[in-house]
Amino acid sequence: MIIPRKGALLATAIVLAACSGNGGGSLPDKDGGTHDTTAVDSEPADAPGPDAIADGSHNDADGAAAADAFPSHDVPLDHGTPPAALRVPAEWEPHAATWLQWPGPYEKEMRPAFARVINVIRQYEPVHLLVGTKGDQKDASQFLQAQGVPQDNITWHTLPVDSAWMRDNGPVYVLVQGTLAVQDWKFDAWGGNFGTDVPFENDDAVPALVAKYLELEVQDQSGYVLERGNLELNGADTLVLNWDCQDDRNPGLTAAQHEKVLSDAFGVTRIIWAYGHDPLDGTTGHIDGTARFISADTIAIGNNGTATDEDLAVACEQAGLHVVRFDGDSNWLVGNGFVLAGAEGDPALDEAFEAQLSAFFPGRDVHLVDVVSIWDSGGGVHCVTNDQPAGP
């Protein structure tokens, strides 16, 4: 379950770190040239070339195939569903990269956990890391080096940010007639639930700047507040999300109005709402703390002992989905040949959870790492990562 982020992590003082970026530079074009930008400056650290980024290749071979109790996820639309003209790729589809925002001074306790997360991802796919300034990049690079993290698959971008939760403020990617585009939704720092003085303007600008770097079309969705952490899509026709969160961010809209916005944006024909959240959860119930698709027709729902979980399981079954229940951290990331989640630190629990994830995602290496500092700050692996699909 997602717990509230500590107020100190998103305190007013973070403005000092967020606003200290140099806010300028040039980015390498895909053909080797450069283009100007007012807020991004990227430097690859022995990063792979465009071809490696495009195909989402990784260094390690996939692990041995696990139990076949669940369907393979390498081909997301393998249940008789034809490719849609508009859809959001499922997380288990090939990635071009995964993006993160490096924790600033007021989130620095998460840095060792970030290093562990980055060290796993970089073995399988390129990592893009946003840092506020060139000085921040130097410090972060030295920190990763001290933690034993090679930087041969990391590209750095100097860009002012307000927080380290790129799942929520970063891009949402869609395929439109087979062409990848970025959706830029409004981000307002979780509706002010962590304080009305929490800055978010820099974070809100990230999707458009990432799209500029990637030379992708931007779909302006800024009239509606949406965090990617409250989106669970199956790569085909179904969206699951928490009503409380969307009602909090966009008050006064009816269910039909919400669903019109979401179905038009994502091309889905089925929307399933979860209801209820922990009153201490400032995200107001992000769905990635409750339920995750593991294939186009199967959703895994955590055994958190809440009415939200039980009611959602019933709703999903009534909608025609296969529902499986599990114990453990639902805030995992699925990538190119791997699954990454938080470790409990109890050998028996971790062994059981690793086996469960191997059954959910056969053929992928499962990594459980210590992310307690991220948990204590109110999130998990999924919350701090933003996966970029490889496209068609």
Description:
The protein is α/β, with parallel strands linked by helices. It has one domain (40-48, 83-389): L-arginine/glycine Amidinotransferase, Chain A. The protein has 12 helices and 20 strands. The protein has helices at 14-18, 50-55, 111-121, 134-146, 166-169, 201-214, 243-249, 255-266, 307-318, 347-360, 372-376, 381-384, and strands spanning 25-28, 34-37, 41-45, 86-87, 95-101, 127-131, 154-158, 172-176, 179-186, 217-225, 232-233, 238-242, 270-274, 291-295, 298-302, 322-326, 333-335, 338-342, 365-369, 386-389. The strands form 6 sheets. Strands 3-7-6-5-20 form a 5-stranded mixed beta sheet. Strands 4-8-9-10 form a 4-stranded mixed beta sheet, with helices on both faces. Helix 4 links the parallel strand 6 and strand 7. The longest helix is centred in the middle third of the chain and has 14 residues, at 201-214. It is globular and about 50 Å long. The protein starts with 13 loop residues before the first helix and ends with a strand. Mean pLDDT is 83; it is low at 1-82.
